DNA sequence: GTCACGCAACCCCTCAGACAAGTAGACAGG
DNA sequence: CCTGTCTACTTGTCTGAGGGGTTGCGTGAC
């Protein structure tokens, strides 16, 4: 039975209840659920609410309904997905993951970068310098520079990881800079040095510089 | 207007139509959709069908509805997920990403490991040695050992990344070992050394050993 | 005995209407 | 300027009805 106290929509609670029962094994994979009228009565809700709950789970790929046949279990669990984990994780944990990805990318970029990659790196770094006034623009252009490093590494998996991390970190960075606007004078040098290391194909130096920069970023979050 | 030909449930077609309009930019991120009655009339469908379509997109995280306020766009697109990228990527690209994640994890594990982590590391390494006969078991127990390293790092984002990479690499590793069964006598030493480095809280050594082992793995794939 | 056909029960799909519950902006009063 | 109330609008939920598809059983022919 569904709890009558209405904190979140009934359909959403019914969806959770169904998912819990599916996980529990009440309806195995490929099995058919009871009919709408039966199940709605059993749960003590209207058919509409049950149907909406089924639709919600269908959107997640757990259930599939076939007219005339019934509703069937097509997946035992919702793929939680990396994005949900990232969203729920601490900012520091995400930054640590970003350090892992980006230092390795800098390493690879040093040996794989093309002249086009170099052009993009210099261009995005210049944009970053130009946007030093507005915090949001500064964060976004900085992100573009780092994305250019990832692009120079020519590894789509690493690039995809970076793009997954960015949204979670962006808000936190903006908030941090707003609360404590650091001069970050050495920042530009660090970035410029990273470009030079990549240009000179010095993989070890690129990795070291990248790590140094990001570790400093992490320190700003752990310090508070 | 929704096409009247009924090949697929109306609610599903409405969901597609809404998603197409969202992608097209008709309702920007964070914007409110028209009221249900208005939108249903505009699309030429009943309010129930529209609501089920909204629920389907809500299940995918694209829309969020708040009673009394309206329905809002919370994502511009359905996340295709890292899994698809990993599945389509070259094995070498995935291994490179794994190197990034795992070397950093070894680094973190050296400073964060608990005694329980150490126990799990030794236990999984022993299981790995015991399973040296059967290729599949060997690969799986090896995976468990590396997963234990990730667990010792105490970073859920990195752990999630590892679990995402494993399925793609597993098949490739089994195929490789079947084709070219290497003695891998030095392998065990490398893993044992990694455990010792983690036990001794030697972060730099742990990273170095982890990198050496995985780079050798990568070489086996790039060599052919 | 076996197979094909038809039918009936069951199921999901869609619509319409009504009322409840919540939100947010307008507005008057302090 | 702030605050509380009120109202129009929005989503949430239920009910009843009819349409159309699927499945499986029973029947009859071979």
TrEMBL record, chains A, B:
**CDD domains per the record?**
WHTH_GntR (cd07377)
**What keywords were assigned to this record?**
DNA-binding, Transcription, Transcription regulation
Query: Cross-referenced InterPro entries, in alphabetical order?
Result: GntR_C, TF_FadR/GntR_C, Tscrpt_reg_HTH_GntR, WH-like_DNA-bd_sf, WH_DNA-bd_sf
- Per UniProt, residues of the HTH gntR-type domain are 8-76
Q: Which domain of life is it from?
A: Bacteria
GO molecular function list? DNA binding; DNA-binding transcription factor activity
Q: Does the keyword DNA-binding apply?
A: yes
Show the PROSITE patterns listed in the entry.
HTH_GNTR (PS50949)
Q: Which Pfam families match?
A: FCD, GntR
Q: Which PANTHER family match?
A: REGULATORY PROTEIN GNTR HTH (PTHR43537:SF47), TRANSCRIPTIONAL REGULATOR, GNTR FAMILY (PTHR43537)
- Protein name per Swiss-Prot or TrEMBL: FadR family transcriptional regulator
């Amino acid at each position: 039975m569904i709890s009558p106290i209405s904190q979140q929509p009934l359909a959403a609670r019914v969806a959770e209840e169904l998912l819990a029962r599916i996980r529990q094994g009440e309806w195995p994979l490929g099995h058919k659920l009871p009919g709408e009228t039966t199940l709605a009565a059993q749960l003590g809700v209207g058919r509409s609410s049950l149907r909406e709950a089924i639709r919600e789970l269908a959107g997640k790929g757990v259930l599939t309904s076939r007219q005339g046949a019934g509703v069937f279990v097509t997946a035992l669990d919702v793929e939680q997905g990396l994005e949900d984990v990232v969203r729920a994780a601490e900012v520091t944990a995400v930054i640590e993951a970003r350090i892992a990805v980006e230092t390795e990318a800098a390493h690879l970029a040093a040996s794989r970068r093309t002249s086009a990659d170099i052009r993009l790196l210099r261009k995005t770094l210049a944009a970053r310098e130009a946007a030093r006034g507005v915090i949001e623009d500064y964060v976004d252009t900085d992100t573009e520079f780092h994305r250019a490093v990832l692009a120079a590494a020519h590894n789509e998996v690493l690039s995809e990881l970076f793009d997954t991390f960015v949204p979670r970190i962006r808000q936190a960075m903006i908030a941090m800079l707003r609360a404590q606007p650091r001069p970050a004078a050495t920042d530009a040098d660090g970035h410029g040095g990273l470009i030079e290391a990549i240009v000179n194909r010095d993989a070890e130096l690129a990795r070291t510089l990248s790590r140094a920069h990001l570790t400093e970023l992490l320190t700003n979050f752990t310090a508070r």
